[in-house]
Specification:
Blueprint lengths: L6 E10 L3 E10 L3 H8 L17 E6 L16 H11 L5 E4 L3 E2 L1
Antiparallel strand pairs: 1-2, 1-4, 2-3, 4-5
C-alpha cells in the first residue's frame, strides 16, 4: 500500500523463520494516515482531529514490501525512535537497520 508523499526514514531487514530476509520500513508522512482514511469513509467522531508531531509528521512501520498486505501500516508514532521500538517489539527476530545513505547502522 504505497501512500502518496511517504518518505522512507529508515529501512531494515529481519529473518523470517530464521532464514529468509524480510524488509521493514519506517515511513514518515506529513499527515495522519488513519485519520484521513476514517475521514474519507465518514467514520470520524465529532471534533476528532489528526494527531501530528510538532513538525507536522507521523511515523509508521511497514513490515514487508509495498503491496504485500492491504493493512501494512502500523498506527502512527510521534517519532522515528518510537516507531523503531515498536517494530523491534513486534519482530520475531532482531532487525538490522540501514541508514538510507550510509548503509548498515
Amino acid at each position: 500500500m504505497s501512500v502518496s508523499g511517504e518518505i522512507v526514514a529508515l529501512a531494515g531487514t529481519w529473518l523470517y523463520d530464521g532464514a529468509v530476509e524480510s524488509p521493514v520500513f519506517i515511513i514518515r508522512l506529513n499527515r495522519d494516515y488513519w485519520f484521513e482514511l476514517a475521514k474519507a469513509h465518514g467514520f470520524l467522531d465529532e471534533g476528532e482531529v489528526p494527531q501530528l508531531n510538532e513538525h507536522g509528521y507521523l511515523y509508521y512501520v511497514r513490515f514487508g514490501d509495498e503491496g504485500e498486505s492491504p493493512f501494512s501500516l502500523s498506527v502512527g508514532f510521534m517519532s522515528c525512535e518510537e516507531a523503531v521500538r515498536w517494530a523491534e517489539s513486534k519482530s520475531p527476530s532482531p532487525i538490522r537497520w540501514y541508514d538510507q545513505d550510509d548503509g548498515e547502522l
